[in-house]
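During the reporting period the student researcher (J.K.) took over the structure-prediction task from the postdoctoral fellow and processed the backlog of single-chain submissions. One of the processed entries is reproduced below for the supervisory committee.
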Amino acid sequence: KDSKFLVVICPGVRHAPSHEWFSDRFAQLNDILIEKYKSKIIYIGTEKEKDLINNIISQTKNKVINTAGKLSLQELFALIKSADLLISVDTGPMHIAAALKTPVIALFGAGNPEIWHPYSKKAISIIKNNVCNSCMKLNCPRKGEKEKECMKAIQIEDILALVGKIK
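J.K. obtained the following structure tokens:
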């Protein structure tokens, strides 16, 4: 751990694309975290999420690490345990971090945080209530500008404000 702030990011939900945030926003978030906090960013995911993470990395100005499909379950737990922060969409690693008492920022759109939030005092869930959300659909049924408006409403600034409180 050669940086002062290790951030692990889990951007993918292979079976529920409606739960995923946007690659360009993750890329911008990476760059801000690296430049502002001297963060080391490590992406986690399954083999099936490798392309998603490579897409994010291709839009990032700074160096980040992609471990998608490379970690054993033990290594995943160890990485999350050693992290200063996990930023995740509504997926399993979010719950692993909560169980390990690693600070978590969880992004919720189609998932319902009242049911599925990470159970930890060190976890914060972001959901925007002024748009369609918590539909629990795996694929967004809305089309056009309304498609995934629940995730579109989550801004980089929302996450950065919470990182500032955790850091």
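The committee noted the following: The longest helix spans residues 23-37.
J.K. will present the remaining backlog at the next meeting.
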